[in-house]
Amino acid sequence: MTQVVTLPQKKKVNTKKINSKKMMSVLEVLCVLLIVIFLFLPIFWIVLTAFKPESEVYTTSIFFQATLDNFRTVFGSAFNLGKYYSNSLIVVAVTLLITIPVSILASYSLSRFQMPLKQIFMFMILATQFIPLIVNVIPFFTMFRDWGMLDTTLALIIVNLGHTIPYAIWLTKGFIDRIPIDMEEAATIDGANRLQVLWHILLPLAKPGIITATVFCFVITWNEFMFSLVITQQEAVTLPIALSFFIGEEGVLWNQMAAAGIIFVLPTVIFMLLVRKQFILGMTSGGIK
Protein backbone atom coordinates (compact mmCIF):
# COMPACT_ATOMS: atom_id res chain seq x y z
CA MET A 1 0.00 0.00 0.00
CA THR A 2 1.53 3.21 -1.10
CA GLN A 3 1.46 6.31 1.13
CA VAL A 4 0.64 9.59 -0.51
CA VAL A 5 2.94 12.40 0.65
CA THR A 6 1.45 15.87 0.39
CA LEU A 7 3.91 18.69 -0.08
CA PRO A 8 3.30 21.88 1.90
CA GLN A 9 1.68 24.53 -0.22
CA LYS A 10 3.39 27.83 -0.69
CA LYS A 11 1.78 30.74 1.03
CA LYS A 12 0.19 33.17 -1.31
CA VAL A 13 1.94 36.47 -1.40
CA ASN A 14 -0.35 39.40 -0.83
CA THR A 15 0.88 41.62 -3.63
CA LYS A 16 -1.68 44.32 -2.85
CA LYS A 17 -0.35 44.69 0.70
CA ILE A 18 3.25 44.90 -0.52
CA ASN A 19 2.35 47.48 -3.14
CA SER A 20 0.49 49.58 -0.58
CA LYS A 21 3.52 49.53 1.74
CA LYS A 22 5.80 50.61 -1.10
CA MET A 23 3.38 53.37 -2.00
CA MET A 24 3.30 54.60 1.60
CA SER A 25 7.09 54.62 1.82
CA VAL A 26 7.32 56.60 -1.41
CA LEU A 27 4.75 59.10 -0.12
CA GLU A 28 6.66 59.45 3.15
CA VAL A 29 9.89 60.20 1.27
CA LEU A 30 8.12 62.75 -0.92
CA CYS A 31 6.59 64.46 2.11
CA VAL A 32 9.97 64.67 3.83
CA LEU A 33 11.54 66.10 0.68
CA LEU A 34 8.79 68.70 0.36
CA ILE A 35 9.23 69.75 4.00
CA VAL A 36 13.02 70.00 3.59
CA ILE A 37 12.65 72.05 0.42
CA PHE A 38 10.07 74.31 2.07
CA LEU A 39 12.34 74.93 5.08
CA PHE A 40 15.71 75.25 3.40
CA LEU A 41 14.88 76.91 0.09
CA PRO A 42 14.65 80.42 1.63
CA ILE A 43 17.95 79.86 3.46
CA PHE A 44 19.58 78.61 0.26
CA TRP A 45 18.32 81.66 -1.63
CA ILE A 46 19.55 84.08 1.03
CA VAL A 47 23.01 82.51 0.86
CA LEU A 48 23.00 82.85 -2.94
CA THR A 49 21.88 86.47 -2.76
CA ALA A 50 24.59 87.31 -0.25
CA PHE A 51 27.29 86.35 -2.77
CA LYS A 52 25.60 87.84 -5.84
CA PRO A 53 26.95 90.97 -7.51
CA GLU A 54 24.66 93.98 -7.91
CA SER A 55 23.71 93.04 -11.46
CA GLU A 56 22.50 89.54 -10.48
CA VAL A 57 20.41 90.37 -7.41
CA TYR A 58 17.05 90.47 -9.17
CA THR A 59 17.71 87.45 -11.38
CA THR A 60 16.79 83.84 -10.62
CA SER A 61 20.10 82.43 -11.81
CA ILE A 62 21.99 80.15 -9.46
CA PHE A 63 25.18 80.21 -11.50
CA PHE A 64 27.10 83.47 -11.31
CA GLN A 65 30.48 84.83 -10.37
CA ALA A 66 30.44 84.99 -6.58
CA THR A 67 31.76 88.06 -4.80
CA LEU A 68 32.52 89.12 -1.23
CA ASP A 69 31.77 92.78 -1.87
CA ASN A 70 28.48 92.58 0.00
CA PHE A 71 30.22 91.49 3.20
CA ARG A 72 32.85 94.22 2.80
CA THR A 73 30.11 96.78 2.34
CA VAL A 74 28.13 95.86 5.46
CA PHE A 75 31.27 96.05 7.60
CA GLY A 76 32.35 99.30 5.97
CA SER A 77 31.73 102.83 7.16
CA ALA A 78 28.38 103.00 5.34
CA PHE A 79 26.66 100.49 7.66
CA ASN A 80 29.26 99.82 10.39
CA LEU A 81 27.81 96.40 11.14
CA GLY A 82 30.79 95.42 13.28
CA LYS A 83 29.79 97.90 15.98
CA TYR A 84 26.23 96.58 16.14
CA TYR A 85 27.56 93.03 16.13
CA SER A 86 29.72 93.71 19.18
CA ASN A 87 26.76 95.36 20.94
CA SER A 88 24.66 92.23 20.44
CA LEU A 89 27.45 89.96 21.65
CA ILE A 90 27.99 92.07 24.78
CA VAL A 91 24.28 92.13 25.63
CA VAL A 92 23.89 88.37 25.10
CA ALA A 93 27.06 87.41 26.97
CA VAL A 94 26.34 89.54 30.06
CA THR A 95 22.68 88.50 30.10
CA LEU A 96 23.56 84.79 30.05
CA LEU A 97 26.35 85.18 32.63
CA ILE A 98 23.81 86.66 35.04
CA THR A 99 20.72 84.66 34.07
CA ILE A 100 22.08 81.12 34.32
CA PRO A 101 23.71 81.30 37.81
CA VAL A 102 20.77 83.25 39.27
CA SER A 103 18.20 80.89 37.78
CA ILE A 104 20.08 77.80 39.01
CA LEU A 105 20.28 79.11 42.58
CA ALA A 106 16.68 80.31 42.55
CA SER A 107 15.28 77.10 41.08
CA TYR A 108 17.33 74.99 43.51
CA SER A 109 16.01 77.00 46.44
CA LEU A 110 12.42 76.74 45.23
CA SER A 111 12.80 73.01 44.64
CA ARG A 112 14.51 71.99 47.87
CA PHE A 113 13.56 74.50 50.57
CA GLN A 114 10.23 75.23 52.19
CA MET A 115 9.36 78.92 52.36
CA PRO A 116 6.24 80.97 53.06
CA LEU A 117 4.13 82.02 50.06
CA LYS A 118 6.16 79.72 47.82
CA GLN A 119 3.28 78.93 45.47
CA ILE A 120 2.36 82.59 45.13
CA PHE A 121 5.96 83.43 44.33
CA MET A 122 6.08 80.72 41.67
CA PHE A 123 2.84 82.00 40.17
CA MET A 124 4.24 85.53 40.03
CA ILE A 125 7.30 84.26 38.19
CA LEU A 126 5.11 82.43 35.70
CA ALA A 127 2.77 85.42 35.32
CA THR A 128 5.63 87.54 33.97
CA GLN A 129 5.65 85.35 30.85
CA PHE A 130 1.99 86.17 30.16
CA ILE A 131 2.46 89.94 30.02
CA PRO A 132 2.77 91.21 26.41
CA LEU A 133 6.09 92.89 25.73
CA ILE A 134 4.42 95.97 24.32
CA VAL A 135 2.92 96.67 27.77
CA ASN A 136 6.40 97.03 29.30
CA VAL A 137 7.89 99.27 26.64
CA ILE A 138 6.65 102.64 27.92
CA PRO A 139 7.47 101.99 31.63
CA PHE A 140 10.99 100.86 30.75
CA PHE A 141 11.47 103.81 28.39
CA THR A 142 10.33 106.30 31.04
CA MET A 143 12.49 104.71 33.71
CA PHE A 144 15.65 104.66 31.58
CA ARG A 145 15.00 108.20 30.38
CA ASP A 146 14.80 109.47 33.97
CA TRP A 147 17.95 107.56 34.89
CA GLY A 148 19.86 108.77 31.82
CA MET A 149 20.32 105.20 30.53
CA LEU A 150 18.73 105.46 27.11
CA ASP A 151 20.84 104.17 24.24
CA THR A 152 23.06 102.04 26.49
CA THR A 153 23.82 98.34 26.49
CA LEU A 154 23.21 98.27 30.25
CA ALA A 155 19.57 99.20 29.68
CA LEU A 156 19.17 96.36 27.18
CA ILE A 157 20.79 93.92 29.61
CA ILE A 158 18.36 94.92 32.38
CA VAL A 159 15.39 94.54 30.06
CA ASN A 160 16.50 91.12 28.85
CA LEU A 161 17.16 89.92 32.40
CA GLY A 162 13.55 90.70 33.24
CA HIS A 163 12.47 88.15 30.62
CA THR A 164 15.18 85.49 30.70
CA ILE A 165 15.51 84.96 34.47
CA PRO A 166 11.84 84.00 35.13
CA TYR A 167 11.82 81.77 32.03
CA ALA A 168 15.07 80.04 33.02
CA ILE A 169 13.88 79.54 36.62
CA TRP A 170 10.76 77.70 35.52
CA LEU A 171 12.61 75.60 32.98
CA THR A 172 15.51 74.68 35.26
CA LYS A 173 13.30 73.93 38.27
CA GLY A 174 11.54 71.18 36.32
CA PHE A 175 14.84 69.34 35.88
CA ILE A 176 15.98 69.85 39.48
CA ASP A 177 12.66 68.52 40.81
CA ARG A 178 13.35 65.19 39.06
CA ILE A 179 16.77 64.72 40.66
CA PRO A 180 16.49 62.32 43.65
CA ILE A 181 17.16 64.13 46.90
CA ASP A 182 18.69 60.94 48.33
CA MET A 183 21.89 61.59 46.35
CA GLU A 184 22.27 64.98 47.99
CA GLU A 185 21.61 63.56 51.44
CA ALA A 186 24.25 60.86 50.88
CA ALA A 187 26.80 63.50 49.87
CA THR A 188 25.91 65.58 52.94
CA ILE A 189 26.49 62.56 55.18
CA ASP A 190 29.92 62.13 53.59
CA GLY A 191 30.79 65.67 54.65
CA ALA A 192 29.92 67.76 51.58
CA ASN A 193 28.48 71.20 52.19
CA ARG A 194 25.60 72.77 50.26
CA LEU A 195 27.79 74.38 47.60
CA GLN A 196 29.75 71.17 47.02
CA VAL A 197 26.50 69.25 46.60
CA LEU A 198 25.29 71.85 44.14
CA TRP A 199 28.51 71.85 42.13
CA HIS A 200 29.46 68.17 42.10
CA ILE A 201 26.06 66.45 42.09
CA LEU A 202 23.22 68.70 41.03
CA LEU A 203 24.87 70.60 38.18
CA PRO A 204 26.13 67.49 36.31
CA LEU A 205 22.74 65.80 36.62
CA ALA A 206 20.82 68.93 35.61
CA LYS A 207 23.21 69.77 32.75
CA PRO A 208 20.71 69.00 29.93
CA GLY A 209 18.16 71.31 31.54
CA ILE A 210 20.70 74.06 32.08
CA ILE A 211 21.87 73.80 28.47
CA THR A 212 18.27 73.91 27.25
CA ALA A 213 17.57 77.03 29.33
CA THR A 214 20.78 78.62 28.03
CA VAL A 215 19.82 77.98 24.42
CA PHE A 216 16.35 79.49 24.79
CA CYS A 217 17.67 82.50 26.71
CA PHE A 218 20.34 83.00 24.05
CA VAL A 219 17.75 82.98 21.27
CA ILE A 220 15.41 85.32 23.18
CA THR A 221 18.18 87.85 23.83
CA TRP A 222 19.85 87.60 20.43
CA ASN A 223 16.57 88.14 18.53
CA GLU A 224 15.14 90.84 20.81
CA PHE A 225 13.81 93.69 18.67
CA MET A 226 11.06 95.71 20.33
CA PHE A 227 12.97 97.11 23.31
CA SER A 228 16.07 97.70 21.21
CA LEU A 229 13.97 99.72 18.79
CA VAL A 230 12.56 101.97 21.55
CA ILE A 231 15.49 102.22 23.96
CA THR A 232 18.44 102.51 21.56
CA GLN A 233 19.16 105.25 19.07
CA GLN A 234 22.72 104.98 17.77
CA GLU A 235 25.40 103.84 20.22
CA ALA A 236 23.73 100.70 21.60
CA VAL A 237 21.93 99.54 18.45
CA THR A 238 21.92 95.75 18.09
CA LEU A 239 21.85 93.53 15.01
CA PRO A 240 18.05 93.07 14.72
CA ILE A 241 17.69 96.85 14.47
CA ALA A 242 20.70 97.16 12.16
CA LEU A 243 19.03 94.88 9.61
CA SER A 244 16.39 97.56 9.05
CA PHE A 245 19.09 99.99 7.90
CA PHE A 246 19.20 98.20 4.56
CA ILE A 247 15.73 99.55 3.72
CA GLY A 248 16.02 103.07 2.38
CA GLU A 249 14.70 105.52 -0.15
CA GLU A 250 16.08 103.46 -3.02
CA GLY A 251 14.29 100.34 -1.79
CA VAL A 252 15.66 97.22 -0.16
CA LEU A 253 19.35 96.45 -0.63
CA TRP A 254 18.75 92.73 -0.91
CA ASN A 255 22.35 91.65 -1.44
CA GLN A 256 23.67 93.58 1.59
CA MET A 257 20.68 92.53 3.70
CA ALA A 258 21.27 88.88 2.80
CA ALA A 259 24.94 89.19 3.77
CA ALA A 260 23.98 90.81 7.08
CA GLY A 261 21.35 88.11 7.62
CA ILE A 262 23.96 85.36 7.28
CA ILE A 263 26.18 87.16 9.76
CA PHE A 264 23.21 87.55 12.09
CA VAL A 265 22.29 83.84 12.23
CA LEU A 266 25.88 82.57 12.30
CA PRO A 267 26.36 82.77 16.11
CA THR A 268 23.07 80.93 16.67
CA VAL A 269 24.09 78.14 14.28
CA ILE A 270 27.54 77.79 15.88
CA PHE A 271 26.07 77.80 19.39
CA MET A 272 23.50 75.15 18.50
CA LEU A 273 26.16 72.93 16.91
CA LEU A 274 28.26 73.12 20.07
CA VAL A 275 25.45 72.16 22.46
CA ARG A 276 23.17 70.13 20.18
CA LYS A 277 23.62 66.81 22.01
CA GLN A 278 22.82 68.19 25.44
CA PHE A 279 20.01 70.33 24.01
CA ILE A 280 18.35 67.35 22.33
CA LEU A 281 18.75 65.33 25.53
CA GLY A 282 17.15 68.08 27.54
CA MET A 283 14.25 68.48 25.11
CA THR A 284 13.51 64.76 24.87
CA SER A 285 14.07 63.61 28.43
CA GLY A 286 12.49 66.50 30.28
CA GLY A 287 14.60 65.74 33.32
CA ILE A 288 16.51 62.99 35.07
CA LYS A 289 14.74 59.64 35.12
Automatic annotation (TrEMBL):
It holds the Pfam family BPD_transp_1. GO terms for biological process: transmembrane transport. One of its GO terms (cellular component) is plasma membrane. Keywords: Cell membrane, Membrane, Sugar transport, Transmembrane, Transmembrane helix, Transport. It is found in: Cell membrane. The chain crosses the membrane at residues 26-48, 84-108, 120-142, 154-176, 197-222, 253-275. Residues 85-275 form the ABC transmembrane type-1 domain. Its main location: membrane. InterPro entries: BP-dep_ABC_trans_perm (IPR050901), MetI-like (IPR000515), MetI-like_sf (IPR035906). It is a multi-pass membrane protein. Belongs to the binding-protein-dependent transport system permease family. MalFG subfamily. This is Carbohydrate ABC transporter membrane protein 2, CUT1 family. It comes from Peribacillus simplex. The lineage of its organism: Bacteria, Bacillati, Bacillota, Bacilli, Bacillales.
